Amino acid sequence: MTATSDEHQKHRVVIIGSGFGGLFAAQALRREPVEVTVVAKTTHHLFQPLLYQVATGILSEGEIAPTTREVLRRQENVKVELGEVVSIDLATKSVTSNLLGRTDVQHYDSLIVAAGAGQSYFGNDHFAEHAPGMKSIDDALELRGRIFGAFEVAETTPDPADAARYMTFVVVGAGPTGVEMAGQIAELSHRTLRQDFRRIDTTKARIILLDAAPSVLGTFGEKLAAKATSKLEKLGVEIQLGARVVNVDSRGIDVENSDGTRRRIESVCKIWAAGVAASPLGKQLAEQSGAVLDRAGRIQVQPDLTLPGHPEVFVVGDMATLDRLPGVAQVAIQGGKYAAKTISTRLRGGPPMRNFEYKDKGSMATISRFSAVASIKGVQLSGFVAWLMWLAVHLVYIIGFKHRVTTLLHWTVSFIGRGRSERTVTTQQIFARSALQRLGEGFMPTLPDDWASRGPSAATRPAGQPGAVPKARKAPAGNPAPGAESAHLGPDGAASGSASTGTA
Questions:
Q1: Which of 16, 173, 417, 429 is 20–30 Å from 495 (CA)?
Q2: Which residue of the set 32, 180, 422, 485 is catalytic?
Q3: Quick check: is 180 catalytic?
Q4: 206-211 vs 168-172, strand pairing mode
């Protein structure tokens, strides 16, 4: 499609990512004479702080991840494009994305990079096979299956030692995510599930919170860290600090103590909540601009959140590092708004914006129902009052009235009663990621070259007829074909299965 002359005259803003930074930047440009394109590899805006509640059956994924198109549907100067950005060319001011083998290029006058961060295993990426992180909807659904599935398998296991291994949960990382996850698993085992099984006693499940650091919630200060520790221990969580993970496999986890001794914890279900790694796009930007990357892959930005020598490129959120700003949602939100305001000011010919200043609105972490810790502008709170504040703040930042209402209803069921409405799990949730990894790069679903000319009905035509969508490319020799593998939970907790004939 050829753009009109009027469209050419509009300032083109490309936003990479639909997280807090990208979404709030797009919304801040709603009344500006600009043409905004949001490019993201998912179709939803993820409220990441509540992922652990999806993993533990409190909320559904839809409540914390509304579709980006729905959120921005009334903003006429925005278009949303699905695709994973694979390269940014600062010289030509272009962004290249890929979707199912099809390449798309967007040209920009201003660029806001808010691609976020993923899980970091500190150079041990193979740990991810047995200890999923907490950075995406897929992660949360997989963990939901692993957590609830562990109790189910323990119920059918005649060997007490095997049952104990299934009922031992290890959470690596004692920051807010780790603390919240450990607290919710404790609530599950001691309260929600205690009357649901006949052979096992879920209240005897072990929940272990590991960290190499000397305290939990280290950024919250000693007072709140002590209160959080006390509450977790009352819930039955075993806190093991000064413990560094050295190996993870399907049957357990090996740790090294601060004195150098090593020990093993037998556990099938492990959750990784330690460390983040910025999007690899940061490395591309650094190489082209001369900016510095830190150890987490975050790019050192100018005080106005731009790249050195490229005032038209803003980097916000978890991808950027400036004045030791924390990796929290508020930094991304404020950074996105700041970038949008700077673009608007420049278009109007206004005076240069002041340097970006982060306004710290505090930190919060919930431990269990009716208990949380909060640090807000020097005021430290804990217990029920902090929990009410946590509840209110999270409701405010959930996008959309409908999602707020349904979230509040689910919280009422979970916190006042004992039920959890989102306990449905499937084998596919647990093993899909591992299956895709075994298929390797040889399996790459693609769109046909003439997809656009075939029309929307192409997807519904039977295979073999003109215009039908072709099957995914066959996996290379040595790998099972997609859909040809039936996986089950073996006695060691690993995915096992038998290859059979079949097609994708």
A1: 173
A2: 180
A3: yes
A4: parallel
